[in-house]
Each structure stands twice: as structure tokens, then as C-alpha cells.
């Protein structure tokens, strides 16, 4: 008996000893200066099982955290560019082990470290994928955008960054926000050679970041970790160029560009300046569209980045300046501040064409228009983030913001919609629309988050609140054609050789005054309580109130747009005021052990709308909606190289008062619409799945993303083509289209995306391939009869528009040498679109692809050659069309000054003068081709200068700094240019 008991005790003791594990922490620093070293490669080898190596990198401020290692002896090797290797051993024999400071001595053994850095292209920790910038070479004066384009799983399209299949909403530099939500500005404002590492991760909301309870309001973010040697000094780039365009007949013949960026870093105190002035359509920024001029609606802020939009189509003259400042204050660094201000002024001219074919099940008409617009815009934007660590357990964060926007557009569009009645068409209708508007508005607000830990680990309280107010003015003069469709073909004007619109046009002149204002209040309370060693429960209550007022007055005037003695037209004018109160409450659960996490939240939500439409007599609108929503997230880190992440959530979108109002919109007499007072909120289910594999030793990265989105009670369009005569307030109309909205189930979007990247040794290059499939099904209603009494449509048939798209992209980026660098890429997209009401079930098939190459060569004596070429082709198989063009840019340069930091260049943009801006889209019963203005061929002389001054002694020699290569460089810009834009940059659709 004693022997049995002793054996059992010994077995249990041995098992417990075997199962014991401990966490290890350390800090990697420079042995001479004591400064932290970020991005050092740490190789951890168990003495008993040396084949089971693990790799880690030092994080922000040199921190190293290894959460779980089995008890035993380990050898540790540390390496970083510009330092001697560090080798040591240690033993894990307790639950927590601190290795203290790991001191790297500066040295000359760079070759070995470079080899290690090349292997470590990517690594991952939790949901964070880290890219080692040293493994992706770009020219010395490239910006961060050029660096990102070479990294697997990341794409940059016209300033929009997508990582792991999701749009990046914010950029951080060393953990601090950089230029707010303007990702485009952020990635163009830092030199690539200052980057040590790029981290892609899912950023939690301010409220959730403290407690770790993901509330589903996070977003994809980039954190740019700078090189330690470049955090003390001044660096940036300045450029200026002047050119001539001998071919243009519509733009300024003389071209110019000037701008740059300057960064002054002194530890935690950092200030960055940017500027851009040109008339060659360079718009390296996004703007906050509070007026909704880009078509996004404005004024309905629903989440991160909803206001930030890219510039509109056309050729723009640009003036832009910006500043970003961040610092840490207090004896204990308890206060951190980040703020940015940005101003831009654009004058955009655009000449556009639209060819739109209506197909079965629609009446087979064709819409052909030509347009011209001239838009002047001004934008001011300020935002800041102030965080105060009151104590170890308390934290307060405040985010003030202000923006102002002015927009002065002038536009004219003319054309025809036609279809011979004998061929099944509806006749001939003239399009003649004009608008001259002046809009301006401002938005001011602030938010605050108070967070506290209440003694017990995992017990927290979070209070979150915000306020915003906006005021907009929208005044315009416009005209449009109100004459009905004619059955007879127009006569040809003998002078112009085109159809004579004289008998097909009756213009109506309008003067519109539409001031509006809104404010919103939002608050939330979250409490978390630990219920086990690895588990937490939470309780959250949220409330928001949104109020809107709008007073639209429209006058039918003469061609002078005078309103003297006139009263607003009843059918065109309306005023409304509304209040939306939304409340939600519910519990949550979080389980987190080692590197694995599971979170689940469920909410009961009630939304109540109380508003009224003010006309001759007020129309009250009251609705209340009750829903249950949920959010689940699972993070499974299989090992240091493989991780899975799954999001499952639901959300609602309630209709606005303008969607619900029982009012006609006859501002465009040929396209009349009506609200639907019976609309219900949409209810959507969303699934996102991510798998990431980082093979550290071989430098290979594989990513797979899958997403699904389906919507119940989808807000679908009900469209009637040629509805006949409709009488509204005594006025007869014969529109080309009449539409309203209604709820339909069955909206689907499915997407999958694969990305694989690897180094190719014999080519000294990195090769990345990406492929994806996206499927969408969008329901709508077509046809029916308009009820003049209610404005609603009865009858009609459901039409499901299905689109299947396949895309593929391959990028070969060289790492050959500092004097020869190239990037080759090809991307193509094939689309098939169908309409369920199409009797023959035919598919609309089209394909577009682009082959692109960039080359940079530095010759002896500092001469440079830069070239970029892109061939783009658009092929329509169903409609039998083909559009293609070759865009080629060539530049010759000479490095100047003793340190080679200056460069004089002469070159030509669009050598063959073939640039185009062409796009194709499909929808319910139509296919549309569009073109817009672009910059063509011009010749330019440009001067670039790279600012470099680092360290305590302020050396200007770039070779003096950790891991930074010589100025002749091996870092490369994205598509094209050797300096600041525009050399080598493609001026495609804007």
C-alpha cells in the first residue's frame, strides 16, 4: 500500500514538474547609448531539443515577451543590422523570468545580420503580422507606399491600402496615430529607409482597448516601427519641377510641381510637415466629405473613416499643407498627445463620357452623354488625441476634432437616351442638365473615454461619450429637361452634323436653398468582471441620439434664376426634422489563455425615430424597431507560424427620415423618385475568417481570407422604365425612370482571397502572388404600375443581379543591389454578370488587366535612369469592345552634392500620349462604360533633395546610422519615380 501511494505521489510530482512552464521578458538595448532596439531578431534554442528553434523580434521600446516556455535550459542569440551578435544562455525554472537588458554592441558584422533579416521577411504574434522592412528593398528616396507595395498580402490602389483583404483605416508610427484617419497622406509622408518594421493588426476601439473585450468596432491598422537610429534628428524630402505640355488643348501648357515632407524627431517629441503644390493631378491625400459631394451622403457618420474619401475624377490643380505633432509629457510620461492639421485646395476640371446600354429585362435603350465640370474645393481638418494616465489603474482619453469644407461645382451634361420603337425601344429623349452650386459646412465634436481597473485583475469599468455638431449650407442654380420622350427620330442639324435638340427640349430653371444642421450625443458604460483565471464576463449599455433638421426651398425661375416675387414650389420643397434614439444592452464573455482568445457579446437593441415632414401640413413619422445583435471573435494561435482568426457578427441599419417620407423628388424630371414609409431596418450577418502562415526560416508567407455578408430586408430599388404620365401637384410628368425603395431578402456577398510570398534566391528577388473570387447577388424589383395617389409601385417582378469576379496578381520585386532595382507586376480581373429576369440567361462577360514594370539603374559617377511602363486593356466579350493603352515614363538623372542626396532629373510623362481613364460597371439590366479626363504627355525638369540629419552629433552621412544603407540606395519607390511625384508615377483615372 505504501509502495503504491509513494509511486502515485512520485508520478504526480514528475508530471507536474514536466508540465511547468514560465514566461520570459527582456529588453533589447544599444550597449553604448542605452537606447532601445526595435526589430532585433532573437533565436531561442532549447538545449535538449536544439531542432525546436523559435524566433522572436523585439517590439516597441525593445520589449521582448515570451508568454510560455517549458522549464529547462535555453540558448539565446540576438542579431540586428549594424550590431555584433549577442549569445547567451538562461534557465526557466519559475513562472516569471526576467532577463533584464540584452545589450547589443555596435559592430561591423552586417553581412551575417542581413542574411538573417532576409530570412525573417514576416513573423506573427497573436493577430499581428510583422513585416521586416530590411527584406524588401526600394530606392533610397522612396516613401512608405513604395515599400508596402512589395509586401505579401498588402495592396495599394490609388492611395487606398488593403491588408489581408480588409481596408486599412489608420496608420500609427511607433504606436502613435499619424495624420488621423488619412491613410493616404500617412504612407506618403515618411521615407521608406526610416522603417524598421511594418505591423498589420486589428486595432480595438478606444473603449475595448483597455479591457480587452472586443466590441466589434475595431478596424484594420498599420503600425510603422521606425529604426532606432532615426528617432533623433531631422529627415525628409523636398522636390520641385517645371515642365511643358505641347499637346494639350484644354489644360495649362506649363506644368509645375513642388512639395515635400520634413520630420523632426527627438525621442517621443515628433513633428512632421508636408506640402504639395502642382497642376499635374497629384493628390496624395484623402479629404473629409462632410457635404456628401462625392456621393457618399455626408452627414451620416457610421464608423471609422466613413467621411474619408479619395479625390474626384478629373485633372486637378492642388495646394495642400499639413502638420502632425506628437509628444509625451510628465515626469512619468503619463500624458501623451497627438494632433494633426491638414488643409487642401483643389480646382478640378473633368470632361466625361457615359455609354450605358439597357438590356433585358429592361427596354433596350441606349444612354449617351458628354459632360464638363469645374469644381473648386477647400478643406480644413484638425483632430487630436490626448491621453492621461491618471494612475496605474486609471486612464482618460479625449479626442477633439474640427473640419470645414467648401465646394463650388459647375457642371453641364448633354446627350440622348434613345431606342427606336420599331426595334422595341422607347423613343428619343434629350438629356440637358446644368448645375452651379455653392456649398459649405463645418463639423465640430469631441469624444472622451474614462477607463479604470478596480483592484482585482480583470475587473474594469469604462465610460465612453461623444458629442458632435454640424451645420451645412447648399445653394444652387440648375436646369433640366422636362419634355417627355418623343417617338420620332430627331433630325440632323446640317451645321453640326448631330441630332437637333430644338423640338426635344423644354428647360425648367430652379433656384435651390437647402440649409441643414445636425447634432449627435453618444454614451456607453462597460463593466468587466473576472469569473475564472482565464475568463471574464462583461455588461455593456449604449445609447445614442441623432437629431437632424433640413429646410429645402426650391423656386421655379426664369433663365436669370431670380426669385423676386416667387414662393417655393410645393412639389420641389420640403423641410423635415427628426430625432433617432438608439439603445442597446447586453452581456459579454471573454476567455483568453496563452495566445488563444474567444469573445462573445449579445445585445438587445431598440431604435426609435420621431420626426415630421413640414409642407402645407405637417406629416408625422414615428417608427420603433427592436432587434437582437451579436458579435463573436475567436483567435487561435496554433504555433509561432500558424494562426486562425474568426469574426461572426450581425448589425442593423435603420432607414432615415428621407427614406421614409411619403414625398416625391422631382428635382430631375426625367428621373423621379418617392420615399417608402413602410421601410424596415436591414439586418445583416457577417463572417470573416483569416488564416496566416509565416515560415520564418524560409521567408515564406501564406494568407487565406474568407468573408460572407448576407442581408435580410435589404433596401432594394424598385424601378419602372417609361411609367407613362404622372400628375404631381397638378403638374404632368413623363419621366424616363420612376423609382422607390422596398425591403427584399436575399442580398449576398461572398469573397475569398489567397496570398503567397517567397524570396527567389537565384534572382535575388521577392515574389508575391494573390488570387481571389468575389460573388455578389443584389435583389431589385423591375416594372409595375405607379399609384399616383400614394406614389408607390404595385406589381413588378423581382430581378437578382449576380456578379462573379475572379482576380489574380503577381509581383516580382528585386533585391539585387543598391544600383539596379526593378519591379514587375501583372494583375487581371474577369467578371461575369447575369440578371435573373433575362429570358435567355446570357452573361455579360468582360476582362481587364494591367502589366507593369519599373526600373531604376544607378550608373558610375551618379548618373541615373528611371523608367516605368504599364499596358492596360479592357475587353468586353458580350458587347465586343476593346480599349487599351500604354503608359510609359522615362527619366534621366544625375546625383549631385558630395553626399549624393540631391538629384537633377529630366524626363517625359506618358511618352506615347496614350493615357486614358476608362471604367466599366454593370447593374440591374444595364452595362455602362465611362471615361474621365487624365493628364497626358508632358516634359519636365525636376530637382529632388533628401534631408538627413541624425543622432546627437547630427551627422549627415546616412551610412552612420543603424541599418540604413547608402544614399545610392537599394530602396525603391512604387510604380515609377525616383523622387517625389510625379516622375514615373502613373496618372490614371482620378
Question: Can you give me a brief rundown of this structure?
Answer:
The chain has about 1000 residues and is mainly β.
Describe this structure in words.
Helices cover 5% and strands 60% of the residues. It is globular, with a radius of gyration of 31 Å. The chain has six helices and 54 strands. With 990 residues, the chain is mainly beta. The strands form seven sheets. It has a 33-stranded mixed sheet that branches. Strands 8, 9, 10, 11, 12, 13, 14 and 15 form an eight-stranded mixed sheet that branches.
Relevant terms:
33-stranded mixed sheet; 8-stranded mixed sheet; 54 strands; 5% helix; 60% strand; disordered N terminus
Low-confidence stretches: 1-19, 108-119, 295-308, 952-990
Roughly how many Å apart are the termini? 86 Å
The number of distinct helices, counting runs of at least 4 residues, comes to 6
Largest sheet: 33 strands, mixed
Helix content: under 10%
Provide the gyration radius in Å.
Answer: 31 Å
- The SS-based structural class is mainly beta
How would the global form be characterised? Answer: globular
Number of strands: 54
Rounded average pLDDT: 83
Strand content: over 45%
Amino acid at each position: 500500500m505504501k509502495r503504491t501511494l509513494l509511486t502515485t505521489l512520485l508520478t504526480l510530482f514528475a508530471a507536474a514538474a514536466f508540465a511547468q512552464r514560465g514566461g520570459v521578458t527582456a529588453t533589447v538595448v544599444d550597449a553604448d547609448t542605452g537606447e532601445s532596439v526595435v526589430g532585433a531578431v532573437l533565436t531561442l534554442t532549447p538545449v535538449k531539443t536544439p531542432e525546436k528553434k523559435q524566433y522572436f523580434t523585439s517590439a516597441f521600446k525593445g520589449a521582448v515577451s515570451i508568454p510560455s516556455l517549458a522549464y529547462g535550459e535555453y540558448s539565446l542569440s540576438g542579431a540586428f543590422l549594424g550590431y555584433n551578435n549577442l549569445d547567451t544562455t538562461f534557465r526557466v525554472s519559475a513562472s516569471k523570468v526576467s532577463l533584464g537588458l540584452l545589450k547589443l554592441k555596435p559592430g561591423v558584422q552586417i553581412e551575417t545580420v542581413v542574411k538573417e533579416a532576409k530570412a525573417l521577411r514576416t513573423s506573427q504574434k497573436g493577430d499581428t503580422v510583422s513585416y521586416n522592412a530590411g527584406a524588401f528593398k526600394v530606392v533610397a528616396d522612396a516613401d512608405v507606399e513604395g515599400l508596402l507595395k512589395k509586401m505579401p498580402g498588402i495592396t495599394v490602389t490609388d492611395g487606398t491600402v488593403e491588408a489581408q483583404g480588409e481596408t486599412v483605416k489608420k496608420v500609427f508610427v511607433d504606436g502613435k496615430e499619424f495624420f488621423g484617419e488619412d491613410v493616404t497622406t500617412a504612407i506618403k509622408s515618411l521615407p521608406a529607409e526610416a522603417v524598421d518594421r511594418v505591423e498589420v493588426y486589428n486595432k480595438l476601439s478606444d473603449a475595448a482597448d483597455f479591457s480587452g473585450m472586443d466590441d466589434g468596432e475595431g478596424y484594420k491598422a498599420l503600425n510603422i516601427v521606425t529604426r532606432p537610429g532615426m528617432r533623433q534628428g531631422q529627415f525628409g524630402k523636398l522636390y520641385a519641377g517645371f515642365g511643358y505640355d505641347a499637346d494639350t488643348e484644354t489644360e495649362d501648357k506649363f506644368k509645375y510641381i513642388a512639395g515635400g515632407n520634413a520630420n523632426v524627431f527627438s525621442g517621443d517629441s515628433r513633428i512632421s510637415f508636408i506640402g504639395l503644390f502642382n497642376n499635374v493631378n497629384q493628390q496624395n491625400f484623402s479629404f473629409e466629405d462632410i457635404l456628401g459631394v462625392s456621393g457618399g451622403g455626408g452627414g451620416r457618420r457610421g464608423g471609422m473613416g466613413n467621411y474619408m474619401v479619395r479625390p474626384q475624377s478629373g485633372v486637378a490643380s492642388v495646394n495642400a499643407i499639413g502638420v502632425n505633432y506628437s509628444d509625451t509629457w510628465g515626469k512619468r510620461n503619463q500624458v501623451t498627445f497627438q494632433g494633426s492639421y491638414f488643409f487642401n485646395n483643389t480646382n478640378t476640371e473633368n470632361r466625361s463620357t457615359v455609354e450605358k446600354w439597357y438590356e433585358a429585362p429592361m427596354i433596350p435603350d441606349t444612354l449617351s452623354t458628354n459632360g464638363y465640370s469645374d469644381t473648386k474645393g477647400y478643406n480644413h481638418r484638425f483632430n487630436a488625441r490626448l491621453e492621461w494616465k491618471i494612475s496605474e489603474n486609471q486612464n482618460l482619453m479625449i479626442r477633439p476634432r474640427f473640419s470645414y469644407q467648401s465646394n463650388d461645382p459647375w457642371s453641364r451634361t448633354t446627350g440622348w437616351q434613345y431606342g427606336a420603337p420599331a426595334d422595341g425601344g422607347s423613343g428619343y429623349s434629350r438629356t440637358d442638365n446644368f448645375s452651379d452650386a455653392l456649398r459649405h459646412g463645418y463639423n465640430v465634436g469631441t469624444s472622451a473615454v474614462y477607463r479604470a481597473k478596480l483592484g482585482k485583475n480583470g475587473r474594469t469599468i469604462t465610460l465612453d461619450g461623444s458629442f458632435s455638431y454640424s451645420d451645412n449650407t447648399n445653394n444652387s442654380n440648375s436646369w433640366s429637361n422636362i419634355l417627355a420622350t418623343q417617338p420620332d427620330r430627331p433630325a440632323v442639324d446640317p451645321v453640326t452634323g448631330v441630332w437637333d435638340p430644338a423640338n426635344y427640349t423644354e428647360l425648367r430653371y430652379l433656384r435651390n436653398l437647402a440649409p441643414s444642421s445636425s447634432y449627435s450625443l453618444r454614451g456607453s458604460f462597460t463593466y468587466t468582471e473576472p469569473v475564472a483565471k482565464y475568463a471574464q464576463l462583461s455588461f455593456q449599455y449604449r445609447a445614442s441620439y441623432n437629431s437632424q433638421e433640413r429646410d429645402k426651398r426650391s423656386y421655379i425661375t426664369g433663365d436669370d434664376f431670380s426669385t423676386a416675387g416667387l414662393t417655393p414650389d410645393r412639389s420641389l420643397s420640403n423641410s423635415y426634422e427628426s430625432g433617432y434614439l438608439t439603445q442597446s444592452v447586453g452581456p459579454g464573455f471573454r476567455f483568453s489563455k496563452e495566445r488563444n482568445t474567444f469573445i462573445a457579446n449579445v445585445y438587445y437593441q431598440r431604435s426609435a425615430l420621431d420626426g415630421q415632414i413640414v409642407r402645407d401640413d405637417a406629416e408625422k413619422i414615428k417608427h420603433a424597431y427592436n432587434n437582437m445583435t451579436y458579435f463573436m471573435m475567436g483567435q487561435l494561435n496554433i504555433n509561432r507560424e500558424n494562426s486562425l482568426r474568426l469574426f461572426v457578427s450581425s448589425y442593423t441599419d435603420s432607414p432615415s427620415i428621407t427614406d421614409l417620407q411619403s414625398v416625391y423628388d422631382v428635382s430631375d424630371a426625367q428621373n423621379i423618385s418617392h420615399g417608402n414609409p413602410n421601410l424596415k431596418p436591414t439586418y445583416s450577418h457577417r463572417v470573416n475568417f483569416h488564416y496566416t502562415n509565416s515560415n520564418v526560416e524560409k521567408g515564406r508567407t501564406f494568407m487565406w481570407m474568407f468573408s460572407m455578408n448576407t442581408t435580410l430586408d435589404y433596401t432594394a430599388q424598385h424601378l419602372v422604365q417609361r411609367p407613362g404620365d404622372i400628375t404631381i401637384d397638378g403638374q404632368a410628368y413623363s419621366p424616363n425612370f420612376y423609382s422607390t425603395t422596398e425591403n427584399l431578402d436575399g442580398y449576398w456577398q461572398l469573397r475569398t482571397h489567397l496570398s503567397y510570398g517567397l524570396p527567389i534566391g537565384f534572382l535575388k528577388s521577392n515574389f508575391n502572388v494573390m488570387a481571389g473570387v468575389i460573388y455578389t447577388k443584389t435583389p431589385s424589383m423591375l416594372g409595375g404600375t405607379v399609384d399616383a395617389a400614394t406614389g408607390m409601385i404595385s406589381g413588378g417582378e423581382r430581378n437578382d443581379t449576380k456578379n462573379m469576379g475572379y482576380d489574380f496578381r503577381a509581383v516580382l520585386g528585386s533585391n539585387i543591389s543598391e544600383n539596379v532595382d526593378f519591379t514587375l507586376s501583372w494583375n487581371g480581373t474577369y467578371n461575369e454578370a447575369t440578371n435573373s429576369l433575362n429570358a435567355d440567361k446570357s452573361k455579360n462577360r468582360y476582362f481587364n488587366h494591367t502589366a507593369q514594370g519599373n526600373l531604376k539603374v544607378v550608373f558610375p559617377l551618379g548618373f541615373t535612369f528611371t523608367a516605368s511602363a504599364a499596358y492596360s486593356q479592357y475587353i468586353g466579350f458580350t458587347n465586343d469592345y476593346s480599349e487599351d493603352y500604354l503608359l510609359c515614363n522615362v527619366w534621366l538623372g544625375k546625383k549631385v552634392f558630395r553626399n549624393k542626396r540631391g538629384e537633377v532629373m529630366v524626363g517625359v510623362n506618358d511618352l506615347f500620349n496614350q493615357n486614358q481613364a476608362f471604367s466599366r460597371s454593370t447593374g440591374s439590366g444595364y452595362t455602362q462604360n465611362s471615361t474621365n479626363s487624365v493628364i497626358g504627355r508632358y516634359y519636365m525638369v525636376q530637382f529632388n533633395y533628401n534631408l538627413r540629419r541624425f543622432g546627437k552629433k547630427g551627422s549627415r552621412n546616412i551610412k552612420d546610422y543603424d541599418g540604413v544603407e547608402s544614399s545610392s540606395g537599394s530602396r525603391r519607390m512604387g510604380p515609377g519615380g525616383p523622387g517625389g511625384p510625379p516622375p514615373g508615377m502613373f496618372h490614371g483615372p482620378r
